[in-house]
């Protein structure tokens, strides 16, 4: 969705209703968790929270649900403040993972949450390395890092109807947050013609396709890209694969199976499966090959400074049809105000007394109650992490209790920066 002011009477009324719901939620807030900022009391007044840095406020509160009480931790980020900006937390390579707190401190962020679902295990493909790479597109500092895997190859809960792995949350150069969809536009130019490029630094490629891997991918094995099918993540790995290394526009290497190891700047490794592999076998050492790729946003003409994958929960103040209202879990999500100038980063607590969590439908309602017009689900369970600095502290601290007992390394997240 493009960032757009929508100050109508209907939306004003919706905001008054959302504030009323938020007041109820914060009124019901229970005792503070050890190590967390105090939750609101029972006076009926919403918790004003703790100022983390200019334009960034942290607060926590209980959320009553059908399955028990959940505890939410929220960073309220005001993008109207010129000192505030958002970015992509990432460990420096697509095929790598690091904890949210380590990435936030390394980037100099004042807070952040975990991001996209990711290739966490390969139990269905014995001997194949799990890449740790995220599912959806990723953009960092205006640079395209990766594109989306096929829908059938994703990790995470079932997608709501009408959503895809190409859905993103991002912030454009206009400093507005928005939901959008990013597709890969790419091709491989050879002496015999042009071949479609259908992957960029992805842990899974579409059947019969060719994907590109660059230095951004890292050192992780590329074998996983040729496993599974467009509809079955656990299907066997393809037996018809081929890899071509292109350096400064010429073929310098070929192999029957995808490899691993660092990829130098100025080098692209092309991996093909089935029809894609057959097309790559026609290339010879020394052949000229041109590779072009870019991510294209479907809704906004504004270039993105950062974007990451997940899936939408709210659009224009309304929950998406078909959101699950039965399965509760610890979750992370982000909400965007109607004008795109306020972001609400929410992570549920994984402590035993709160571990039942919320359903996706309840998360959507919670984001709406906070004031979000659009909402986006991020990875949950043991990945759910919200970190923020204590006022005056040199480093962030984890504010929720990760359900696994410790922070889980993740492939990316949302970083919050604020200048003093």
What does this structure look like?
- This protein is mainly β and 420 residues long.
- Helices cover 10% and strands 34% of the residues.
- The protein contains 4 helices and 25 strands.
- The chain has helices at 9-27, 100-107, 275-280, 360-370, and strands at 50-53, 56-65, 68-78, 84-89, 111-114, 138-140, 143-146, 167-172, 177-190, 193-196, 199-200, 210-213, 241-247, 250-255, 267-273, 290-297, 304-309, 311-315, 318-319, 332-336, 342-348, 374-378, 386-389, 396-398, 413-418.
- The strands form 4 sheets. Strands 1-2-3-21-20-22-18-19 form an 8-stranded antiparallel beta sheet, covered by helices on one side. Strands 6, 7, 8, 9, 10, 16 and 17 form a 7-stranded antiparallel beta sheet that branches.
- Helix 1 crosses helix 4.
- It is globular, with a radius of gyration of 22 Å.
- The two termini are 31 Å apart.
- Residues 1-45 have low confidence and may be disordered.
Short overview:
This protein is mainly beta. It has four helices and 25 strands.
Outline the fold blueprint:
Elements: H1 9-27, E1 50-53, E2 56-65, E3 68-78, E4 84-89, H2 100-107, E5 111-114, E6 138-140, E7 143-146, E8 167-172, E9 177-190, E10 193-196, E11 199-200, E12 210-213, E13 241-247, E14 250-255, E15 267-273, H3 275-280, E16 290-297, E17 304-309, E18 311-315, E19 318-319, E20 332-336, E21 342-348, H4 360-370, E22 374-378, E23 386-389, E24 396-398, E25 413-418
Parallel strand pairs: 11-12
Antiparallel strand pairs: 1-2, 2-3, 3-21, 4-25, 5-23, 5-25, 6-7, 6-17, 8-9, 8-17, 9-10, 9-16, 12-15, 13-14, 13-15, 18-19, 18-22, 20-21, 20-22, 23-24
């Amino acid at each position: 969705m493009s960032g757009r002011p929508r100050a109508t009477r209907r939306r004003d009324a919706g905001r008054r209703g959302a504030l009323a719901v938020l007041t109820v939620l914060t009124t019901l807030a229970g005792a503070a968790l050890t190590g967390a900022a105090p939750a609101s009391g029972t006076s009926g007044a919403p918790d004003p929270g703790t100022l983390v840095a200019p334009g960034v406020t942290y607060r926590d509160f209980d959320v009553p649900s059908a399955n028990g009480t959940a505890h939410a931790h929220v960073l309220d980020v005001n993008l109207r403040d010129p000192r505030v900006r958002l970015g992509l937390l990432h460990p420096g390579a697509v095929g790598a993972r690091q904890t949210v707190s380590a990435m936030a401190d390394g980037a100099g962020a004042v807070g952040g949450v975990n991001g996209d679902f990711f290739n966490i295990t390969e139990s269905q493909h014995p001997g194949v390395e799990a890449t740790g790479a995220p599912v959806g597109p990723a953009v960092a500092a205006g640079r395209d890092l990766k594109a989306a895997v096929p829908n059938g190859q994703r990790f995470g809960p079932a997608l709501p109807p009408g959503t895809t792995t190409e859905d993103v949350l991002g912030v454009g150069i206009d400093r507005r947050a928005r939901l959008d969809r990013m597709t890969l536009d790419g091709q491989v130019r050879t002496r015999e013609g042009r071949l479609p490029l259908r992957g960029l630094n992805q842990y899974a490629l579409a059947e019969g396709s060719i994907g590109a891997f660059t230095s951004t991918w890292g050192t992780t094995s590329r074998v996983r890209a040729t496993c599974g099918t467009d509809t079955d993540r656990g299907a066997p790995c393809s037996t018809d694969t081929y890899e071509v290394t292109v350096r400064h526009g010429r073929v310098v290497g070929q192999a029957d199976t995808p490899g691993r190891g660092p990829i130098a700047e100025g080098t692209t490794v092309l991996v093909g499966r089935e029809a894609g592999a057959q097309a790559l076998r026609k290339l010879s050492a020394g052949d000229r090959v041109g590779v072009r790729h870019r991510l294209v946003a479907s809704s906004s003409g504004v270039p993105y400074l950062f974007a990451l994958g997940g899936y939408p929960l709210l659009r224009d103040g309304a929950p998406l049809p078909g959101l699950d209202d039965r399965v509760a879990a610890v979750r992370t999500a982000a909400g965007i105000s109607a004008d795109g100038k306020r972001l609400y980063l929410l992570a549920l607590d994984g402590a035993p007394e709160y571990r039942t969590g919320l359903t996706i439908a309840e998360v959507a309602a919670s984001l709406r109650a906070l004031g979000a017009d659009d909402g986006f689900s991020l990875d949950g369970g043991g990945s759910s992490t919200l970190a923020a600095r204590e006022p005056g502290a040199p480093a962030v601290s984890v504010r929720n209790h990760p359900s696994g007992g410790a922070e889980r390394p993740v492939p990316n997240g949302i970083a919050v920066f604020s200048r003093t």
